[in-house]
Amino acid sequence: MGIFSRTRDIIAANVTDLLDRAEDPEKMIRQIIFEMNETLVEVRASAARTIADQKEMRRHIAKLESLQDSWKEKAELALSKDREDLATAALVEKQKAGDMAEKLKAEIAVLDDALKGYENDIAKLQKKLSEARARQSSVVNRLESAENRYKLREMTNGDRVEDAFSRFEILERRVDEAEGRADALGLGYKKSLDEEIAELQSADKVADELAALKAAQAKK
Predict the structure, then answer these.
(1) Largest separation between any pair of C-alpha atoms in the chain
(2) What would the DSSP string read from start to end of the chain?
């Protein structure tokens, strides 16, 4: 079942209110635009038929006016021949054609009013359609923005982030354990005799070199 049942429903519709009450605004706006387009096509088709009817009536009126002229000529001819009876009959036919032409003119006037109504409806429908399309763009953009925000929050607050940090903690723990093993290798280590003597010899060399530098400075 459609959203709108008549052209007037669309013209009077509050698109914003319809969207606010919709469970799925994006789907609703698509349906609104679809029905507005369909209605616009129907109204234009009705207007086209009205214009066609008017053209046909005007052609018929032209024929009736020509027929009136013809009956008038016949009446004049009959009267010139002293055939008043025929002249009267011809004038009666002329009157019938005239009456029919007047009726058609009255119908054209009615159709003119209908055509003005169609024109007014089309203008209002186009305005509503433009409004709906603008709202569609807004709804789509807002929905896309909301979905992006949701995905971002899901990423930052969801299980995936927690899992990632858990993996980081596991890696850090492994590094700590590796460093601990390296540090543990140095625990309880005792220098050998050769290492201690080598350190003493190195210290003596440094001391001798320092004494030589001091002596050189004293001579200056």
Answers:
(1) 172
(2) --S-SSHHHHHH--HHHHHHT-SSHHHHHHHHHHHHHHHHHHHHHHHHHHHHHHHHHHHHHHHHHHHHHHHHHHHHHHHHTT-HHHHHHHHHHHHHHHHHHHHHHHHHHHHHHHHHHHHHHHHHHHHHHHHHHHHHHHHHHHHHHHHHHHHHHHHHHSHHHHHHHHHHHHHHHHHHHHHHHHHHHTTT----HHHHHHHHHHHHHHHHHHHHHHHHHHH-
C-beta separation of 118 from 11 below 8 A: no
**CB environment 67-102: b (16+ within 10 A), e (fewer):** bbeebbebbeebeeeeeeeebeebbebbeebeebbe
Spatial distance between the Cα atoms of 218 and 172, rounded to a whole number of angstroms: 58
pTM given for the model = 0.53
Show me where the domains of the chain are located. 7-157, 161-189, 194-219
- 17-71 pLDDT, tens digit per residue, is 555 555 666 677 777 788 888 888 888 999 999 999 999 999 999 999 999 999 9
* Cα dihedral 49, 52, 54, 56 sign: negative
Q: Quickly state the pLDDT bin for 16 (edges 50, 70, 90).
A: low
The confidence band for 184, taking pLDDT boundaries of 50, 70 and 90, is low
Two tokens, residue 78: 């009959």
Over range 116-136, report the average pLDDT.
84
Average pLDDT over residues 108-134: 88
